[in-house]
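ok, trying the design again with the full structure, not the truncated one.
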C-alpha cells in the first residue's frame, strides 16, 4: 500500500534523501533522484536568514521539477520568524514544509534551534502548531529521540506533534548528546510507529547503509520508509540497490570505476551550472574522496583533485582515473 504525506503519494516504502548541510543541494539531489530516491529535502534553511532576505538562505529555496516531491526544511528558535519563513517557503512551491528539530551542531542548538528545542517540548509543540496554521502545505518534522539519555520522550512528542497537525515524522535514532556517535537505536522509532495512536507515516533514520540493513529495519520495526543520509554521500546508487534488493532479494552489480567517474563528472557540471565556476569547483572538493573511497593507491589523484581549480583539468584527471583503474573491483 502506498504511503501518503498529506495527499501526496510517495510510494510503497519510500526512500528519503536526508537534508544534509553543504551536501543535499540541487546538484547532489539530481543524482540521488536519478538513482532511486523517492522524496527530497533541501539543506536546512535559517528562518532568520529567510526573513532578512539573506542570499545564502534564499538560494537554498531553488527547487526543480525533476526533484518532486520535495520538502523545504527550515530551522530557528523564534516562533514568529518560523511562521514568516514558512510563508516564504510556500511561495517557492515545494510539496511539503519540513521542520528541523534534529540538527545537533552546537552553534544551532545553543540558540534553542534544531535539536536544541528538545529541551523545551512545550515550545516545540507550540511552534509546530503555528507553522501548520501558516501554510496549506503538509508539514513534516525531522527530529531525534531526545536531548540525552534521560529525556527520550519521542513516543509522547510524536503524538503531540501529530495532534497539532504534522503529516509525517522522520526520527533519527540517536539523542542530541550522541551527535552521530555510537549505533542508532531504532527501538523507540519502532515504538512510535507501533503506537496505535499514530496515524501519520513514521520514517526511520540512522545507520541505514545497506540493502540488508534496510530490509532488517523494515521488517523488525515496521516503519513506513527510511531516510538515508551519510551512506548516500559519494554513493547515490544506494537507493536503487535497496529497492532492487527489497523487490528481488538479490543485489545489483556495484558501480564500476567508469560509473563513478561519469557520475562525478556530472556532479561537477551540475555544481558549476548552479553555483558558478569558482564556488561550484570549490564545493565539489568535499565529494571526490567519497566517490573513490576504497581505491588503493589513490592518494596522488585525490590530492590533484582537491587542489585543482580548473574544471577542464579536473575533468581530464577524472578521465585519467577511469583509464588507470579500469576494471578495478570494489
Amino acid at each position: 500500500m502506498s504511503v501518503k504525506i498529506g495527499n501526496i503519494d510517495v510510494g510503497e516504502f519510500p526512500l528519503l534523501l536526508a537534508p544534509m548541510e553543504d551536501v543535499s543541494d540541487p546538484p547532489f539531489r539530481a543524482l540521488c533522484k536519478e538513482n532511486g530516491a523517492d522524496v527530497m529535502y533541501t539543506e536546512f534553511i535559517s528562518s532568520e536568514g529567510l526573513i532578512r532576505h539573506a542570499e545564502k538562505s534564499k538560494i537554498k529555496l531553488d527547487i526543480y521539477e525533476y526533484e518532486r516531491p520535495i520538502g523545504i526544511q527550515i530551522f530557528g528558535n523564534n516562533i514568529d520568524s518560523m511562521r514568516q519563513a514558512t510563508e516564504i517557503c510556500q511561495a517557492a512551491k515545494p510539496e511539503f514544509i519540513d521542520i528541523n528539530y534534529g540538527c545537533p551542531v552546537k552553534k544551532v542548538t545553543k540558540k534553542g534551534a534544531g535539536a536544541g528545542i528538545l529541551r523545551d517540548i512545550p515550545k516545540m509543540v507550540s511552534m509546530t502548531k503555528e507553522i501548520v496554521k501558516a501554510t496549506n502545505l503538509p508539514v513534516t518534522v525531522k527530529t531525534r529521540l531526545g536531548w540525552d539519555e534521560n529525556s527520550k520522550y519521542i513516543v509522547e512528542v510524536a503524538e503531540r506533534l501529530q495532534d497539532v497537525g504534522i503529516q509525517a515524522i522522520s526520527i533519527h535514532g540517536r539523542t542530541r548528546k550522541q551527535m552521530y556517535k555510537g549505533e542508532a537505536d531504532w527501538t523507540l522509532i519502532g515504538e512510535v510507529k507501533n503506537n496505535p495512536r499514530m496515524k501519520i507515516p513514521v520514517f526511520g533514520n540512522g545507520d541505514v547503509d545497506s540493502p540488508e540493513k534496510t530490509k532488517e529495519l523494515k521488517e523488525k520495526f515496521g516503519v513506513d520508509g527510511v531516510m538515508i543520509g551519510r551512506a548516500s554521500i559519494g554513493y547515490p546508487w544506494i537507493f536503487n540497490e535497496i529497492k532492487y534488493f527489497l523487490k528481488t532479494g538479490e543485489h545489483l552489480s556495484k558501480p564500476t570505476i567508469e560509473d563513478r567517474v561519469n557520475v562525478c563528472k556530472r556532479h561537477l557540471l551540475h555544481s558549476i551550472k548552479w553555483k558558478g565556476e569558482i564556488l561550484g569547483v570549490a564545493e565539489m572538493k568535499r565529494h571526490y574522496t567519497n566517490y573513490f573511497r576504497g581505491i588503493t593507491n589513490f592518494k596522488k589523484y585525490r590530492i590533484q583533485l582537491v587542489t585543482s581549480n580548473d574544471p577542464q583539468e579536473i575533468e581530464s584527471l577524472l578521465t585519467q582515473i577511469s583509464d588507470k583503474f579500469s576494471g578495478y573491483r570494489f
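Keeping the full-length input from now on. The longest strand covers residues 70-75.
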